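Review form for a predicted model. The reviewer records the input and the model, then writes brief findings.
Reviewer: anonymous (R2)
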Amino acid sequence: MALKNFADLTEREILAIAIASEEEDSRIYLSFAEELTESYPATSKVFQEMAAEEDGHRRQLLEMYQGRFGQNLPAIRREDVRGFLSRRPTWLIKNLPLETIRSQAEAMETDAQRFYARAAAASQDVGVRKLLGDLAIVEKGHGEKASALSEAILTESARNAEGKTAHRFFVLQYVQPGLAGLMDGSVSTLAPLFAAAFATQNNWSTFLVGLAAALGAGISMGFAEALSDDGSITGRGAPLIRGVVCGLMTTLGGLGHALPYLVPNSWPNAFWTATAMAGIVVFIELWVIAYIRARYMDTPFLKAVAQIVVGGAIVLGVGILIGGA
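Model under review:
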C-alpha cells in the first residue's frame, strides 16, 4: 500500500487511524508492564495505568466514529501516512533496559500528541475537532501524568529496589560478558603473541600473529556468549548484545598488547622497544581487569590482583619460554 499524504486523509480515515493507534499504544504499554512486572513491579503498575488511559481514549474515539460513520473501520494505520513514525513490534521490547523503555514511551506520547494536533486542525466537524484537540492536550500532558503516577507508585523503597535491579541487569548484560571477553583476550593471547615475538624477533610477523589471535578469540567468544543462553531464564538480557559486547572486548584485549609491534623493524632496537611497550600494556590490562572484578563482581581487590596478575604473568612466561626455546 502506497503511503498517503496527511492532507489527503478523510475524517473517517483520521478517526480510524486514531482508534488503531490508541489500541496499539495500549497493547504496547501492557507489553511493557508484563515485561517489567517481575523485576520492576512499581514501574509495571505505571504502564498498566497508562494502558488503561489509552484504552479509554480508544473507546471515546470509537463512539465518535460509530456515530458518524457506522461500524466498519477502513484498513488504515498511522504507518500508512507519510511522515508518521511506526511503533516498534512488541517482540522487540524483550530485555530492553528500563530507561530505554521509558524513553520509548515518552517518544510514543510525543508522536501521538503531534498526530492529534494535526488531525484536529484538519477536521471540519466541530465535534470531531473538539475530541481530537482534547486528546492532543491529554497526550501532551501524558508525560506529566506518568510522572505523577511514578511519584505516587514509585516510593523511595520501590525506586531503591528498582535501582538495584537495574544495576544487576547492567552487570549481567554488559559487565559480565565484557569482563569475560577482556580477560580471555588479554590473557589467552599472551602466550601465542610473545611466543611469536621471541621466536621471530620480527615486529610485523608478531603483530600479524597477535591480530589473528585477537580476532579469532573475539569471534569465538562472541558466538560462545551469544549462544550460551537466551536470557529468558537467567535474566542476563539479549544474547545478541551480550555476544557483541563479549566479542568486542575480547578483540580489544588481544589487540592491546599486539599494537606495540607495529613499531617498524627499521627502528633501532625495534624488537625490544615494541616488547617493552607491550609489557607495559599487559601490566595495565591486567590491573584494569582486577579493578573491574573488584568494582562489579564483589571480589576483594587484592584477591582479584592475585588471580589476574599472577595468572597473566604465568601465561606470559609460558609464551616467552616457548618462543625462546
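Findings: The chain is about 75% helix and 0% strand.
Further findings: Residues 170-324 form one domain.
Recommendation: see findings above.
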